Structure prediction request, 171 residues.
Amino acid sequence: MRVLGVDCGSELTGYGVVEQRNGRTLTCLSAGVIRFSRRDLLPRRLAHVFDELSGIIRAHHPDVVAIEDVFYALNAKSALKLGHVRGVAMLAAAAQGLEVAEYAPLAIKSAVVGYGRAEKSQVQQMVKRLLHLEEAPEPPDIADALAIAICHLHTAATLERQAAGGRRTRR
Prediction:
């Protein structure tokens, strides 16, 4: 399975394509950030995110796109901008016929670090370790996107095992 994880942000949007082979080995195929110019108005920024994510999807052919679920922010304006970027990420996936999986921040950190309140540096180090990278991904937005993809792969594998176990007990 190949997953595109997207860490939506109003200034930087991280992305990471992770593939799981043989049900075990995780491999990072691509990762980076989509940067915005502070001079560009919001519609231009959103178009840029759409174009970049669409190109990544075409280049890497993920099976699914995983993004972080909505969380509560103290600043309503920031939350709205983040919502716009999330919507564009979902649109980029849906426009190419892909499903979108959403995960809460606590679930992502739990799946990768084992602790839902882990610090960004802990997420970076575990992503480095799980993907056998030489260095921790920088900026943290890249590690977060990779963590979202890893979370989906772990969740999908767990659901598959549970379904297989259920089929065995029904016979």
Summary: The beta strands are 2-7, 12-21, 25-35, 64-68, 99-103.
